[in-house]
Write a structure and sequence with these properties.
The protein is an alpha+beta fold and 298 residues long. It is 34% helix and 18% strand. It has a domain of 174 residues. The chain is built from eight helices and nine strands. Strand 5 and strand 6 form a beta hairpin.
Length: 298
């Protein structure tokens, strides 16, 4: 059991091993905007917000995931610098270096070519690609691995929103530092106070991977991750309300049948103690990887 907790990733994605289903609420303390294509309507702002077909603002899961991944990678790069290894996250300045740790497109092609020539199976290739992936890549996905983290589009709670705001913007001439001639424009924002149901699933995670996920969740809870555009103008400040994780569920092989049969509605309810155990598992995995120099089965 202890050895299993030290593993950073679960290599077998062909069967169910575990699932973490999170439900919370994103609350915006400032206005925010996720931009859409310019409208052809005469009275529309120059840069409208993204809306559903019925006109409700929403946050694409891809936008949330992008901000979340960027935060996770920045944290893990700092940790790997302290540890002296580079298996937690890719260096964005070395994406074309075939010999660097982590997977680039060139490295994926090289691995597949060499292993196929050696007569290896596709399963062997997949396992090698997982082993060569950084920790962030194993959770958020990369060119060779599908993401374990699946984020639902967050559609605004109608009770928290009445209408959008239109604000004025001015393009600045970088040479003179003054407003540019003819560069005044309007942009649309969702007012402060908007609530968005926030939901995601993590498929087949190890305890340490859940620890990495919870680092991001806690960052959202603290308001450390901003969402949307124009963040330097004060937009995008939000915080996540997890409500004690009472709506979150964690299902593994030991409680799968009880969960599916629905005999106990409390089956799989996530507790603060469980979250703490996942964070501890991440810390243990980092220590194990550091001692092994990135060569362990973490």
């Amino acid at each position: 059991m202890i050895a299993e907790q030290k593993k950073m990733h679960s290599p077998d994605m062909c069967r169910f091993t575990a699932r973490f289903h999170y439900k919370g609420v994103l609350i915006f303390d400032s206005a925010h905007r996720v931009g859409a294509e310019r409208s052809l309507a005469v009275d529309a702002p120059d840069t409208p917000i993204l809306r559903t077909v019925d006109g409700r603002p929403y946050l694409p899961g891809s936008s949330i995931k992008g901000a979340w991944r960027a935060y996770s990678e920045s944290i893990m790069r700092t940790i790997q610098t302290q540890q002296g290894h580079e298996f937690f996250a890719n260096d964005p300045l070395e994406q074309e270096d075939v010999e660097s740790f982590g997977l680039t497109d060139k490295k994926i092609s090289k691995i597949k070519s060499e292993m196929r020539q050696a007569g290896k199976t596709e399963g062997d290739i997949d396992e090698r690609l997982r082993d060569e992936s950084t920790w962030v890549g194993r959770v958020f996905g990369n060119s060779a691995l599908a993401s374990k983290l699946l984020i639902k589009d967050a559609i605004i709670d109608p009770a928290s929103w009445l209408r959008s705001e239109i604000r004025d913007g001015v393009g600045i001439d970088r040479d003179s530092g003054r407003a540019g001639q003819g560069l005044k424009y309007q942009f649309e924002v969702v007012p402060a106070g908007a609530h968005f149901p926030f939901e995601f699933i993590v498929e087949n995670p190890s305890d340490a991977e859940l620890g990495l996920v919870m680092l991001g969740v806690r960052a959202f809870e603290r308001g450390d991750i901003l969402l949307g555009g124009a963040k330097s103008r004060g937009l995008g400040w939000c915080r996540l309300d997890s409500n004690g994780y009472e709506k979150c569920r964690y299902v593994a092989d030991d409680n799968l049948l009880d969960y599916l049969l629905g005999e106990d509605v409390q089956t799989g309810v996530v507790t603060v103690e469980m979250v703490q155990s996942w964070l501890r598992a991440l810390k243990v995995a980092i220590e194990v990887e550091a001692e092994a120099g990135g060569k362990s089965d973490a």
